[in-house]
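Amino Acid Chain and Its Fold in Token Form
===========================================
Purpose: to set a sequence beside its fold so the mapping can be learned.
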Amino acid sequence: MKKKMTITSIKKSKGNKPLVMVTAYDALFARLIEPSADIILVGDSLNMSFAGKSDTLSATLEQMIYHTNAVCMGAENSFVICDMPFGTYVNKDDALKNAIRVFQETNADSVKIEGGVDKAEIVKHLTSNGIAVCGHIGLLPQAFRSEGGYKIKGKTEEEKLSLIEDAKAIEKAGAFCIVIEGVKADVAKEVAKSVDIPLIGIGAGVNVDGQVLVFSDMLGLFEEFTPKFVKKYLNGSTLVKDAIKNYKQEVETGAFPQDIHTY
């Protein structure tokens, strides 16, 4: 049985061991992911890869709580982070009320909040009230409409300094780690050096403190598009389709079920 990571061991990993984070949305995949992942993220990306929506914005707190409970059931020895969905942390009071719901209604170890300097006060309010927080800076999927799309960050000196300021503000507010998404690799490296807590990258190069991928992307199950930063470790969609096609053929020809499958 693997030893579950804690906030302390996650923070101590900086400079010692790259952290492995993978998303999961149900007990089945959480159980498969658990042996290898240090952290499981119940991402609001489930709204796209699981629910078929075009973005994450319509994910609800009830959805996140439901899927977090499923993941916690399947991976009892994993450190589990629940994404706070769009609209659930617009101010300190709402953020605390909704984060308390996550902690009371699931076994999640932490919540994740998108934003930098602008969200530091909210992060501080949560951490001051017993809520562990993972930050998220850089490309913010929940802000894609206001920013005119999904835009890579860190292309200018001004953006670099802003990202460093964001990371430092979230660290000072009490977050134990930060996801950094869609940031130029050389800039992400500097941001990682600017704080004492781990930066976990997605589309941010190798010189950070860990990596996170969406499981359906890395397993080749999500066919609509593949982001540049995704490496497919399995051609899952083809394998599944071939298996079901084989099942169809055997049903139609009478090859299945055989005697060994019959009571």
Notes: The longest strand covers residues 133-138. The chain has two domains: 7-232, 235-263. The chain has a mean pLDDT of 96.
